[in-house]
Amino acid sequence: MKFYFTYILQCSDNSYYTGMTNDLERRLEQHNEGKKRDCYTFNRRPVELKWYIQCTNPTEAIKIEKQIKGWSRRKKTSLIQENWQDLIKFSKNYTEYGHPDSRESSTGSD
Asked: What phi and psi values does residue 55 have, to the nearest 5 degrees?
């Protein structure tokens, strides 16, 4: 059975890179060797694998990759740290719940 992986790397500049591959070890080596000058990770080496998920269906792995690429940094960090409570909190729909920065303070000080 063939496996596919969606993964998150942490780059030397502390940014995250999300990708998908059918050979995780090989792909990590390629990122760190800097095979492609136009790759996001080329000038951000070394990179470190922080999270991955294994899939049996390439379509599912691509779907997960695209979903994660749309996430905020703090949501990706919550996933990496397996902090499910924050992951849920950072997944809230601001249209429905309002953005935390726009909510009034409840301190009562004027």
From this structure: -125, 160
Query: Tell me: the pLDDT tens digits for 21-30?
Result: 999 999 999 9
CA distance 89 to 86: 5
* 8-state DSSP, 102: G
CB contact at 8 A, 14 and 68: no
Residue pLDDT, tens place only, 44-74: 999 999 999 999 999 999 999 999 999 999 9
Domains of the chain as residue ranges with CATH = 4-92 (3.40.1440.10)
The verdict on whether omega for the bond into residue 46 sits within 30 degrees of 0, i.e. cis, is: yes
Residue 61's CB: how many other CB atoms inside 10 A? 22
